[in-house]
Design brief:
Layout (H helix, E strand, L loop, with lengths): L1 E5 L6 H11 L3 E4 H10 L3 H11 L6 H12 L8 E4 L5 H13 L4 E8 L2 H9 L1 E4 L5 E3 L21 E2 L6 H24 L3 E5 L4 H14 L1
Parallel strand pairs: 1-3, 1-4, 2-3, 4-8
Antiparallel strand pairs: 5-6, 5-7
The structure holds zinc ion.
The site of zinc ion has 8 residues, from loops.
């Protein structure tokens, strides 16, 4: 079945998608990957794409749709696609429906990872990592502890690094943008009766098992 996974930054979308890829042998379709792969492919379209991207313009919905149609029409991954980061708006959702219908497929479920904003802010703004071994920590949920307990002996000299865009202000902005763009989409899919909410404030394993239950019930 085809799945759309929704979730704000920090909700664990990547982690749960890779679980679906590994355990359910699904294909993760992200528009970023599609564009990067096309650029590498030396196709006619790749030259056009390179020009658009070099000029700093946005890639049109038409181009994105044609790349997505290529995947939807690929029989080796038929009805086992996880859409990640697409659709982003109602227009794209409608085109997606049309394309899926053309190849006798549909969206079976939209998995909506739900997390309180206050927790997301801490999850993202609390991210730090070891400068030596790159091990990730979280100031609030998984504090780094003694350097001697990090991964390598050289970690004794570690610094704890924080990404500059992981501060509270930018995180709140990113969350607001996400909500504004996603809410109408959720409504669109709710009307089709395919949205399943998942409590993504639980542990990774518990979230995975909630998703498993949803799959088993379909
Ligand atoms: Zn380390």
């Amino acid at each position: 079945m085809n799945v759309i996974i929704f979730g704000p930054p920090g909700a664990g979308k990547g982690t749960q998608s890779s679980f679906l890829v590994e355990k359910k042998k699904m294909f993760q379709l992200s528009t970023g990957d599609l564009l990067r792969n096309e650029l590498k492919s030396k196709s006619k379209l790749s030259e056009k794409l390179k020009k658009i991207m070099d000029s700093g313009k946005l890639v049109s919905d038409d181009i994105i749709n044609s790349l997505i149609e290529k995947k939807i029409s690929d029989s080796s991954i038929k009805s086992s696609i996880i859409f990640d980061g697409f659709p982003r708006n109602i227009e794209q959702a409608k085109s997606l429906d049309t394309m899926l219908k053309k190849y006798e497929q549909k969206i079976s479920v939209v998995i909506n990872l739900v997390v309180d904003n206050s927790i997301l802010v801490k999850r993202i703004s609390g991210r730090i990592s070891c400068s030596v071994c790159k091990k990730p920590f979280n100031e609030f949920f998984d504090p780094p502890g003694d350097p001697a307990e990090c991964t390598t002996a050289a970690c004794i000299d570690r610094e704890l690094i924080k990404r500059s865009d992981d501060n509270e202000n930018t995180v709140s902005n990113r969350l607001r943008t996400y909500e504004e763009s996603t809410l109408p989409l959720l409504e669109y899919y709710k009307l089709k009766g395919v949205v399943k909410n998942v409590d993504a404030m639980k542990s990774i394993n518990e979230v995975t098992s909630q998703i498993n239950c949803i799959f088993n019930d379909l």
